[in-house]
Amino acid sequence: MNIFKGQNLLEFSDRFKSGQDCKEYLANIKWKDTDECRKCVHKKSQIRKDFSRTCNICSHQESATSNTLFHKVKFGIRKAFFIVFEMSTSTKSLSASYVQYVSGLPKRQLVCLCLKLEKLWKVAVIIL
Ligand SMILES: [Zn+2]
After folding, report:
1. Cα 102 to middle of ligand 1, angstroms
2. Largest alpha-carbon pair distance within the chain?
3. Is 128 among the domain residues?
4. What are the pLDDT digits (tens) for 73-121?
5. What separation in Å is there between the alpha carbon of 56 and the centre of ligand 1?
6. How confident is the model at residue 1 (pLDDT cuts 50, 70, 90)?
7. Which is higher by pLDDT, 118 or 61?
8. What are the residues whose beta carbon lies below 5 Å from ligand 1 (ion)?
9. Is position 12 within any domain?
10. Would you state the pLDDT for residue 94?
11. CA torsion angle for 65, 70, 76, 78 (degrees, to 10)?
12. What is the pLDDT of residues 20-45, one digit of tens each?
């Protein structure tokens, strides 16, 4: 993952001060190449305050996090961003207990995100 490449923790903290900052960042990436509605393929939509989009034709709503790594993360997108930042910028592998320690989250809440990351990075390795 190159999304945090070249950033240090201070820059990261300044850039992502709130969940809204994370959602805005994610929405800009997610809809960078296409504005199409997933249901009806219409290209016009309303952008909401939380950066979700509502299709002008079928009213389908899609959040910035849906169909992404951060979909249904239960502990807040900012913490999830921080965990991904830690994992993607660390030069050594991180233990689950270290991630638990820095995030303040119980292990069971980290499992889903860690499984998604593991799957994602395995795919990236295969592509390379
Ligand atoms: Zn639609």
Report:
1. 40
2. 48
3. no
4. 888 899 888 888 887 777 666 666 777 777 787 777 777 777 777 776 6
5. 7
6. very low
7. 61
8. 37, 39-40, 42, 55, 57-58, 60
9. yes
10. 64
11. -90
12. 999 999 999 999 888 899 999 999 99
CA of 58 from ligand 1 middle (Å) equals 4
Structural domain includes residue 74: yes
CA of 59 relative to ligand 1 center, distance in Å: 6
In a domain, 72, yes or no: yes
Q: How many domains does the chain have?
A: 1
pTM of the full predicted structure?
Answer: 0.76
The rounded Å distance from CA 69 to ligand 1 centre is 23
User: What's the 36 CA to ligand 1 centre distance in angstroms?
Assistant: 8
- Span from the CA of 18 to the centroid of ligand 1 (angstroms): 29
Distance 111 CA to ligand 1 centre (A): 33
* Residue 77, number of CB atoms within 10 A of its CB: 22
